Amino acid sequence: MSRHRTAALVGNPNAGKSALFNALTGARQKIANYPGVTVERKAGRLTLPSGEPLELIDLPGSYSFDAASPDEDVTRKVVHGEFEGEALPEVLVLVLDAANLEQHLVFAQEVLELGRPTVVALNMVDLAERDGLTLDAAALSAALGVPVIPTVAVRRKGLDELCAAIAEAESHADEEAHKRWHITLPERRLAAKHMARAAILSASARHTIENGVDRVLLNPWIGPVILFGLLFVIFQAVFAWATPFADALEGAVGAISGWVADIMPDGFFRDFLTEGVLAGVGSVVVFLPQIVILFFFILVMEATGYMARAAFLMDRLMAGVGLSGKSFIPLLSSFACAIPGIMAARSIPDPKDRLTTILVAPLMTCSARLPVYAVIIAAVIPETTLGPGIGLQGLVLFALYLAGIVGALVVALVLRNTLAKGAASGFIMEMPRYQMPRVRDLAIGLWHRAYVFLRRAGTIIFVVTIALWLMLSFPKAEPGESQLDASVAGMVADGLHPVLEPIGFNREMSLALIPAMAAREVAVSALATTYAVDAEDEDLAAEGVTDKIAALWTLPTALAFLAWFVFAPQCISTIAVARRETNGWKWPTFMVVYLFALAYAFAGLTFWIATAAGL
Amino acid sequence: MTLDGFENDTTARIVAVDWASLAEGEAKRLRALGVDEGAEVSVVHRGVFGTRDPLALRIGRMTIALRRVHARAIEVEPA
User: Fold this and answer.
1) What is the Cα–Cα distance from A68 to B29, expressed in whole angstroms?
2) Domain Ferrous iron transporter FeoA-like: where (chain B) (predicted)?
3) Could you tell me which of A55, A412, A569, A614 has the fewest CB atoms within 10 Å of its CB?
4) B interface test, pick of A96, A127, A315, A428 with most B CB neighbours within 10 Å
5) By the 8 A CB rule, do A142 and A171 touch?
6) What's the CA gap between B14 and A186, in Å, rounded?
7) Residue A6: which of A40, A45, A36, A41 has the closest Cα?
8) Looking at residue A180, what is its pLDDT?
9) Is the pTM of this model over 0.90?
């Protein structure tokens, strides 16, 4: 046989499938998308005892083949051999949570009914022991008619035995299987109960730590306080810890750029590499540290089981605007960058909930807005204090964040009652047991997120920034004329300016908005360029530009610019990701239009009110 | 009596579920999680003050979260 042998992991959500997948394949994983659907396909390689390689795919967790989500639909199609482009896996590895057999054996019967060569991984036997359960794998194997291997994925226990069983499983497909199992769900559940009872040798008094911990973490009073305390720490970390790494990355890109500039002759190609490619990709890659830090916390929250509790606590607030607790994770991610936020919306089962979450994600104040806010606030808001520890500048920054959150909630409410109208979304989710996160799983998870982000930076963002660079660089300026003025972008700005003038924007601001489409913080360096501040570095440019803005902009103009950035879809990469995730241009187009409309309206309102107030 | 009005930390047996009042996907999910006639459940936590929504349900060895609107569709009796 020339092609590789294949196997697939199937099982309920929270059976520890991903941990088992990580333990079996290590870092040898390939993550892609199933064509046509936004469901992740995770594949990896492992070596069988015979030395033969085996391709293992990790199918999305399912409660039933009667699919209630796109994920479950993929699993159903793949194991039935109905998924186009995906070969029917030769062996199914059915993963069961040893401590939750009664529940997991229901889906197990559906899997075994297929009659495919199957091996059962009785996973997390250590947690079952913690809960006071002693299990008899042989009895379970006899009841199910397939090999049952006790495993502890996170401690690599039972993995060799499992590989050996996979290698031997292929020979015995069971054509008669469908006749042995009960058909209706109540019958299956009864059978599951009997099998679970027979497999449990002893069960001491139901001792679970969940109830005790949840009594604190889900307490209606203490729970939200702990959650917001944790969110506060996460935000501190995202903004404080990331700075040195972001600076280092920026320095590295600058160094490469300088090196290229030294070794290459002057000309178009050198400028293309340094100012287009390196500067463009560099401006996005600097967000990697923040994204990695944010995802570190998100992965820890997920791995420990706390994320489901956070969703539980946030559900009431989200329900108020027609969403559910499940939108909490994507919206939280969007504070670092809307791109991972929009991608995280995949975990929302209700399509209208998911669409609404994607459409409001860009309203969360992403980290790219911070440099813009910081520069403008420093320039026009006085450094007065309003009370002990409360500065006016900090308060304005807080108000901008709040404006984004309130904006997102209001827009979600409006969308759920108009375009994304539908039955009030529900919130039904399993609350996994608490677990210690494992460094290995965290590392693989982080690498995966970073890789996905970088791949995006390397494709969509790369193309976009180059297009923008071309717009900014051509046609070439006459001596004495500013390049920005002469370029295509400059001409676009001339066209834009009459439109933006009523809301208080001057020509320099209109011009700065164009390169800011690559990444918002570029607005700062673009303003620096137009004001002929001679500094390559953004921080130095910021210092110079602050003085210029303080001198040249009126307060209403500056406030209008801030209000603009709260809403404006100033990031082509986000639009591109929204297109991918909604499979078409319809919704991203809508997103761009409504966000620009909001930005224009709010910048205008800010300008007019501030002018009328005599500021 | 519906599950919504049932006392916390007390085992209840489900006598009937008004599936028709639930969205199809939600009904599927609840059934898959073991919420069905005859199942024994107990409410272990209730959400944020004021609305007491959502609620956490102990079913077998599993805890699931659902909303009060779902709990109102679940008819129970003391077990």
Assistant:
1) 7
2) 1-78
3) A614
4) A428
5) no
6) 13
7) A45
8) 59
9) no
Q: Please list every residue in chain B whose beta carbon sits closer than 8 Å to the beta carbon of residue A208.
A: 61
Distance in angstroms (rounded) separating the CA atoms of residues A398 and B32: 44
A308 touches B: beta carbon within 8 Å: yes
For A100, A215, B14, the CA distances from A185, given in Å and listed in that order, are 17, 33, 16
Residues A361 and A332 sit within 8 Å (Cβ to Cβ): no
Q: Worst-scoring range by mean pLDDT, A248-252, A289-293, A578-582?
A: A289-293
Nearest to A136 by CA among A82, A199, A215: A199
Q: Residue A207 pLDDT > 60, yes or no?
A: no
How far, in whole angstroms, is CA A61 from its chain's centroid?
A: 18
Angle at A166 between CA A161 and CA A169, to 5 degrees: 120
User: CA-CA distances (angstroms) from residue A376 to A370, A372, A546, A613?
Assistant: 10, 6, 7, 20
Q: Which two tokens stand for residue A465?
A: 């920034």
Q: How far is CA A147 from the centre of its chain?
A: 37
Based on its alpha-carbon atoms, the radius of gyration of chain A, rounded to whole angstroms, reads 28
- Number of structural domains found in chain B: 1
Residue A372 near residue A549, CB atoms below 8 Å:
no
Structure tokens at A409: 């909630």
Task: Give the Cα separation of A315 and A364 in Å (integer).
Answer: 18
- From A352, A413, A184, B47, select the one nearest B71 (Cα to Cα): B47
Q: Render pLDDT for A465-493 as a digit per residue (tens, 0 to 9).
A: 677 778 877 787 777 777 777 888 888 88
Cβ distance A14 to A98 under 8 Å? no
Contacts of B66 in chain A (CB under 8 A): 426-428
Digit-coded pLDDT (tens) for A223-277: 999 999 998 888 778 767 878 888 898 888 889 888 988 888 888 788 878 877 7
Sequential DSSP letters for B11-66: -EEEEEE-GGGS-HHHHHHHHHTT-STT-EEEEEEE-STTTT-SEEEEETTEEEEE
Q: Rounded to whole angstroms, how far apart are CA atoms A289 and A242? A: 5
Distance CA B53, CA B40 (A): 21
What CATH number is given to the structural domain containing B40?
A: 2.30.30.90
d(CA A503, CA A610): 11
Question: Domain of B24?
Answer: 3-78
A204-211 average pLDDT score: 63
* Sign of CA pseudo-dihedral A77, A82, A85, A88: positive
Residue numbers of B between 44 and 63 with CB closer than 8 Å to A = 44-49, 51-54, 56, 58, 60-63
Distance (Å, whole) CA B11 – CA B41: 6
Interhelix angle A555-567/A392-417, rounded to 10 degrees, is 40
